[in-house]
Amino acid sequence: MSLNNVNGRGSEASKETEKYLIYGYLPTIGIECHVQLATKTKLFSGADNDAREAEPNSKTSPIDFALPGMLPVLNKEAVRLAVRLGLALNAKINLRSRFDRKHYFYPDLPKGYQISQFYQPIIGAGWVDAGGLKVRVEHAHLEEDAGKLTHVGGASLVDLNRAGTPLLEIVSMPDMHSAADAKAYCLELQRLAIYAGASDANLYYGNMRFDVNISVAKQGAKKLGTRAEIKNLNSFRSVERAVEYEFERQVELLEKGEKVKQETRGWSEAKGKTLPQRSKEEAQDYRYMPEPDVPPVVLSRKFVDEIKANMPLLPEKHRACWAELGLSQSVVEAILDNLILAQKLTTVIQKLGLPEGREIAKIITNWFANILLSEENAAKDFHQLEVEALIELAEMTAEKQLNSNSAKDILLKLLDGKKRPKALAEEMNLLQVSDSGELEIIVDKVLGLPESAQAVSDIKAGQMKAIGFLVGQVMKESKGKANPSVASEIIRRKIND
Ligand code: MN
After folding, report:
1. Where are the beta strands (DSSP E) in 2-58?
2. Domain total for the chain?
3. How are beta strands 96-97 and 289-290 bridged, if at all?
4. I need a surface site. Which of 13, 270, 391, 471 has the fewest CB within 10 A?
5. Do both 234 and 159 map to the same domain?
6. What's the 115 CA to ligand 1 centre distance in angstroms?
């Protein structure tokens, strides 16, 4: 692979890459990402797969403890979710795959080996569009997670709640060349995992962890440099920072005439640096061997086709559905970051049809971007928001039955999903008076007031600015409920008559 071949793309990421070239060195980055699949039970046991906030060792079975005589049984749901995520990665689904034992000794791994897929992974080659950069996926394989160690004083405590949790490890090709590339790729993986319904992809709960392989070499060099692997990054920010730090560390070594060691390093968030952990094992150190207790996984075409046919809409499909609305890219991305709102917007468009529903859909899009996704509301639960109610509210707004503040108040009340907007508007006394009959009575009253005389003669003299004063009087008279544009029309007509 030639290092000159940095894709010519117009993304934010490519601009970032140039920053690195000032040094004359180019980083090359590949990422392994462990995604926790959202199954009810573990990969090979019936224990609960949701160990959030649970008592240590309360979500385990004899299989997770590796008690003598235990036999793992493959969870079909994990296979289904792996295939779904594989399809989202534009990847080849291998109809035949199998499991292998990966041996290493560590107290959080009671069996002494991890059941993984080494020789025949379930997911073959694919690719991800990371903000305009195409990152190839080498393969993805199913494996079980290990437990967790907590070091307290001189003791180490073992919690096996996570042991046996199903993971899909997605291995990318070294197609990234900047911290921004790496971050964009990780963000896109998260989005795909969520949209495919394969994982909660919650970083706080460790549903996604990133191992970043990074090497540096002079731009145009024929060979990649020696790489270091930064293990277990659990936030996008730390991926970014670790790449930046590691790039500078490696360049500095090379500039001093020293060598980069091939090793595993950890990331210290507090120190803002990577630190050596151990020298990197080779495949042979793991003594991989076929797992004799789990039969090979043989998928039928029909099984895969059914998953394909029932795939939830991926971000690309939503984008295509919204294209006619002419939204700015930042609004599109903001809505895509919220699966629920993205699905609702697409349902709105499917219900109304385009171009007929364009105006209503745009009103709703504005609410999403400016109200629901604002800092004060973004963390709220939007599940209860009903599409029919949204459409009804947007239609009332389009017909000027509501002003924008009232629409916002009702929108926020809809989040509990209980009431219809019309009923709410009446109950909250927010409906605007647009009825000309009612408004004419108010306008007549306002025009008859002595303080209106000056404005009326100004308007007759062609100074239309004065109409604002009269509309203001109408608003006052109607206690803020008159529809200002209808009122101003009536005023104009009456004065000119
Ligand atoms: Mn792994």
Report:
1. 25-36
2. 3
3. unpaired
4. 270
5. yes
6. 10
Q: Strand, helix or coil at 102?
A: strand
**Residue at 401 is within a domain:** yes
Classify residue 85: in a domain, yes or no: yes
- pTM of structure: 0.85
Angle in degrees, 0-180, between the axes of helices 179-195 and 12-21, rounded to the nearest 10:
150
* Per-residue pLDDT tens listing for the chain (497 residues): 334 434 433 445 555 566 666 678 999 999 999 999 999 999 999 999 998 889 999 999 999 999 999 999 999 999 999 999 999 999 999 999 999 999 999 999 999 999 999 999 999 999 999 989 999 999 999 999 999 999 999 999 999 999 999 999 999 999 999 999 999 999 999 999 999 999 999 999 999 999 999 999 998 889 999 999 999 999 999 999 999 999 999 999 998 999 999 999 999 999 999 999 876 567 678 999 999 999 999 999 999 999 999 999 999 999 999 999 999 999 999 999 999 999 999 999 999 998 999 999 999 999 999 999 999 999 999 999 999 999 999 999 998 888 888 899 999 999 987 678 988 888 888 887 777 788 888 999 998 889 998 998 898 888 888 888 999 998 888 877 888 888 888 998 888 87
Of 251, 274, 302, the position where a domain reaches its end is 302
Say how far apart CA 421 and CA 419 lie, in whole Å.
6
Residues 295 and 324 in one domain: no
Residue 476: CATH number of its domain: 1.10.10.410
Cα 101 to middle of ligand 1, angstroms = 12
Distance 311 CA to ligand 1 centre (A): 26
Domain span at residue 333 reads 313-427
Distance in Å, CA 337 to ligand 1 centroid: 27
Q: Residue 339 Cα, ligand 1 centroid: separation in angstroms? A: 27
Distance 141 CA to ligand 1 centre (A): 8
